[in-house]
Amino acid sequence: MTVKSIIEAIHDTILEEMRRDPTIIITGEDIGKRGGVFRATQGLYDEFGPMRVIDSPLSELSIIGTGIGMAINGLHPICEIQFADFIFPAFNQIVNEAARIRYRSNGAYTCPMVIRAPYGGGIGGGLYHSQSVEAYFAHVPGLYVLAPSTPYDAKGLLRTALRTPDPVLFLEHKKTYRLVKGEVPDEDYLVPIGKANVVRAGDDLTVISYGLMLHETLKAAEIVGREGISVEVIDLRTLHPLDKETILASVAKTSKVLTVHEDNLTGGLGAEISAIIASEGFEDLDAPIRRYAGPDIPGVPFSPPMQDFFMPNAAKIANQIRDLAAY
Q1: What confidence score (pLDDT) does residue 67 get?
Q2: Which class would CATH give 197-325?
Q3: Which among 132, 126, 110, 155 has a CA at the least distance from the CA of 11?
């Protein structure tokens, strides 16, 4: 085992997988000699050269479009979107092309590609460098959406994604890049797509989260645990498809549920999770399902006090847990 940050785990996985598989190509803005804006690709250009580490034009549509062309012609591209906020010019390519190629060709073609996108707020990035985009894409059949919260899961899920014959949107919360560290096995391992992780066992209620909010939720669970409230915490890891089995098993155990995510409340992942529980786990509930999320405003503010107002945190989540536990 080696202690790594999330960004180190991602870098090392790309490096190891590119050494293993010569069909893996990486492309994106400034990912070559500069090593990417977050240094996720640092040193790769020196080892693999400009034919496998390709600096792209400042055009997300072309990054994804050329990636799709590579994927259906025998390569396995990693397409980096420098900030998830800028993924929308490529929305049509991802949703109408990459996600539907297997279906529209009746299985004759697949589209093995990984789209890496740093997302989320809390870093003073303002409106165009802080967005959470997962809900737009978790609606799309044919597209896997992953959001690891730990270095262990970042490495295991990215390696799985790079061995998957279909498109994967790999969301990396940028605030966790160097903030979150943990043990990572030195040997080859995989984390399965579609399997959530119960990271904390509890009896009184369940909190379901992912990404940066998973860590805030764990802090909140520690706070209320000292008050006698036993919280079970689930890290989704995969946002599409959701792991209904793990979610419903926890609901049957605790009978109370809170979902937490940073994205806007309306139409967020919490709504889909709540619908699943309401339709398939209703009889296990002892209280209404609660959702807690970022407010429905157009973006994360730049002003530090307003950013703090927007971002869910451990203290706010602890208050939500107390209210639900007392119901």
Answers
A1: 98
A2: alpha beta
A3: 155
Q: Spell out the residues 6+ positions from residue 31 whose beta carbon is closer than 8 angstroms to its own.
A: 40, 41, 44, 45, 53, 54, 55, 56, 80
**Buried residues in 294-320 as b, exposed as e (16+ CB within 10 A):** beeeebbbeeeeebeebbbebeebbeb
Cα–Cα distance between 250 and 248 in angstroms, integer?
Answer: 5
Identify whether 129 is a catalytic site residue.
yes
**The CATH fold of domain 2-184:** Rossmann fold (3.40.50)
- Catalytic one of 11, 129, 173, 215: 129
The 10 Å CB-count burial string (b at 16+, else e) for 243-257 is beebbebbbeebbbb
CATH 3.40.50.920 maps onto the chain at 197-325
- What is the C-alpha separation between 75 and 68, in angstroms, rounded? 9
Residues 120-173 have pLDDT tens digits of: 999 999 999 999 999 999 999 999 999 999 999 999 999 999 999 999 999 999
Give pLDDT tens digits for 239-265.
999 999 999 999 999 999 999 999 999
Distance, CA of 163 to CA of 158 (rounded, Å): 9
Q: How many residues appear in the chain?
A: 327
Q: Is the preceding peptide bond at 241 cis, omega within 30 degrees of 0?
A: yes
Provide the token pair at 146.
């992953």
Taking the C-alpha atoms of residue 136 and residue 295, their distance in angstroms, rounded to an integer, is 17
pLDDT band with cut points at 50, 70 and 90 for residue 193: very high
Task: Tell me the CA end-to-end span of the chain in Å, nearest whole number.
Answer: 43
**pTM reported for the whole predicted model:** 0.97
